[in-house]
Design goal:
Protein-Tyrosine Phosphatase, Chain A, 6-stranded mixed beta sheet, 16% strand
Length: 160
């Protein structure tokens, strides 16, 4: 787990915890095992399931977010991104925020990058490429998957 900015951490699956930990809020950005465990399914959910994309439980936000080699669907990714950024906004003043995915290379750091650029203006928001250049100075392990990166390039201007 690496602290990117005060009270904002990026981690991998080994940093994950499901219990309520005093002073912490967690965004689990991986379908397997976190979203599956929280919602209680194996394989895939039907798209009409109420928690198909997102389940917020206490200080935990579970996201059905996958990292594919094809561009991510805006229909599914935009609500995930917006909910995650809103969750950080609501909690960061009073809690440490851990955003984690399986390897801490793509999904979780991408959400941290978006928060710092779009919500806080701490890194450049002019374009995804400029934000990425600034963010890599804070988090050397950022290595976005093709799906995540192509989504951010294509929809940078739409994300808030």
């Amino acid at each position: 787990m690496i602290e990117i900015k005060e009270d904002l951490f990026v981690g991998d699956e080994s940093d994950c915890f499901y219990n309520e930990k005093e002073g912490w809020a967690v965004i689990h950005t991986c379908k397997h095992p976190c979203h599956q465990k929280a919602v209680g399914y194996k394989g895939s959910l039907k798209k009409n399931h109420p928690y198909y994309l997102i389940l917020e439980r206490g200080n935990h936000l579970f996201l059905n977010m996958v990292d594919m080699d094809v561009p991510l669907s805006h229909e599914f990714t935009e609500p995930i991104v917006t909910t995650a950024l809103d969750f950080i906004d609501r909690n960061i003043a009073t809690k440490k925020i851990l955003i984690h995915c399986n390897l801490a290379q793509s999904r979780s750091p991408a959400l941290a990058l978006l928060f710092l650029a779009k919500r806080k203006g701490i890194i450049n928001n002019e374009s995804y490429q400029r934000a990425k250049e600034d963010f890599i100075k804070l988090y050397l392990n950022y290595n976005p998957g093709k799906g995540v990166e192509s989504y951010l390039i294509k929809h940078w201007g739409d994300l808030e």
